[in-house]
Amino acid sequence: MLVFLLAAFILVPASVSVLATRPSFAVIVLMAAVAMPRLFLQVSALKARPEHVACGLLLLALPFWLKQRPEPVKWFAPDYILAAYLGMHLFSSMVMSIAPLQTIKWASQQIIVVTAYFLLRVLIVDRASFRRAFNIALVIGTVEAAYAILCFYSNLLFGTEFGMEIGQYGSIPGTYGTQFEANILGSYCGACCAIMLAMYLQKKERRFLLGFAVTFAAMAISLSRGALAGGLLALLVVVVRCRKNLDRHRVGKLALAMLGIMITVAPAVVGLWSERFSTVEISDIATDETTRDRVITLGLAYEGIMEHPLLGNGTSSFQLQFSSADFGADDDTPGWIANTEARILYDTGIVGFGLFLAFFISLGVGVKRLLKIAPHPELEALAMAFAVYLVAFQFTEGTLLAFPWAHLGLIAAGLAVFQAGNSARQNSLPGAMPDFSAK
Q1: Are 384 and 372 in contact (CB under 8 A)?
Q2: Domain regions of the chain by residue span
Q3: Can you name the residues that pair with 174 across neighbouring β-strands?
Q4: Could you tell me the pTM of the whole model?
């Protein structure tokens, strides 16, 4: 109780005061917090993770930022659709759940992590602040990747267990660093890797090449098959999109970077990757325990979806009805749906999934239209890198954590900033018609 009172009356006001006057530091805090969801503080029956604490503190500082902004936030369609999607989580958890008090808690946690999206919409006010936030995200992603590599080699050489899940893949340990688990680490580093490659091909700066090498190595040592598939797809998209920039100098530098990765990482992971894929049998999925459990989970989820197809069963409610024992395991770990679409359909039904899909379509269409008008390297890199999550989240559900929402928040903030800049330039052209829409 003494610690709680100290935090409530001294640390919280002091933290909010610092964050309210230093928006750039607030972005650093947010980006760092979303990279370390493995850490938590047990509060009653809930786990308060760094992303929950950071978003809570930033929400307290929100009124100060809104007052200091040079102009009000210009909310657009994706913001409203996302807010409706969160409202659907609350509604389904209150009305459709078999344990409303529990699912409302989980729905509140979902709302808190999605707050990262809206906080970045407020914190990013112009092109300079967008690029600053973009660079902060890349620096933190590279640091996380470097720490994960340290964890991997420390385990390999000295048998340490920090940053490692020893039983992640049966006899093969999984590296998570400070991320939630190895699959999430692979997805996160894969997205950072795609951004680094896109920026290097467009700007030819050495720091992006170094970041590409570090994040690619971290994706490799995560041993996540889904993250590897998503990462390779995103890198292919980047190469195709930026192929006009593939001159001899860039290709040579990339070849040297890949050679460095092969020399330092391949000897340690080739055998592990071979074992990871050796259990995959297309003709008999039961040979791979992970794949078998996921298929059974999807079958059980389908039954629950059919019971309440429109409104769902409440946020994370699958774990209220199923556990690992239902799949033949010895423990009683709560069940989990590893596929994003199935999880959202189970939780919020067709209505919630429709809102989720509408949010992505609305945001994607806006980015596509903007990039047709003028090139914006950072925004384009963020959009291409999100392909990692589109693939990886088919096998590992990550939208209940904050890091993909921070990524989407950067995309939305960049879209809003560049759209405003285009409108301002059009209105300043000689002979341009005055804009009476505000009146």
Answers
A1: no
A2: 10-68, 134-278
A3: 165
A4: 0.92
